[in-house]
Amino acid sequence: MANTLFEEGIDGLLDGTIDLDTNTISAALLDLNTADAGIKAITGATNATPIVITATSHGFANGDIVNIGAVGGNQAANGIWKIANQATNTFELTDPITGANAAGSGAYTSGGYAVCLGPSGAGDNYDDFSAALVGSKVALTSPTVSGGAFDAADVTFTSVTGASVEAVALFKDTGTESTSRMLMFIDGRQIVTCAAAAATSATSIPVERLAAGIPNSTVLAFSNGATATLTSPASAGDRTLTVSSLASGISAGNRADAPATGSGLPVTPNGGNINLVFDNGVAKIFRVRAN
Questions:
Q1: Residue 280 pLDDT exceeds 90
Q2: pTM (2 decimals)?
Q3: Are residues 113 and 248 in the same domain?
Q4: Are 47 and 107 found together in one domain?
């Protein structure tokens, strides 16, 4: 399952504030259509360079990493970005690695949410997200750290009711929401990065190694505004995507947001149990790589 670390989670792992195999780490199901300090509704995404997001009184800061999802029409807005030129109700999207501006891929039609991954106070602790909780939080059991990977037993959320679940959050659970540092955001999606230029009319795209599979027929909207449609499914670890003939080229470094095959998210609760099954491969819940 694809996942992203919160900025405060990264800092906590580096400075020892979070100890994965001794601290209580809890998981929470989140309805991202419910606003809180770290989750805001999107009402606009310009088809321009850079993309400008409208989210009323968002409270996010320049330099924050933000996860944009469910934006209709302008698909290139969806993904993980760094905020620039924020104002009370708007902010621009830039590539968190290169700093390049995101380019729109179409007119905004509807919907969308912005999730702040920090480092500002809008996305640092669990109290910024707890209003979106679906069901009850659950503490992870049997945590292990081995071979650079963090793992724990799979999680069962029992008798879950609510409107929808779009994501799972992991956090260091102190028992006090305002001091429970956010660790990980899981929404069943992944960032696909073009590894080398793909020219107009190309039917394959070289990409950085995929963290998870991507279903056939998925339409990817890249950060330069180009789109690509898969003509065969991709698997975890693949470095090439097979696509229909590109209408425009994609240069190295451009990124797209893609669903992860079999993630199970989003899901609509029906009163039954929801099982969170972690990867059994080398990455486990997440792995710190040396390469």
A1: no
A2: 0.94
A3: no
A4: yes
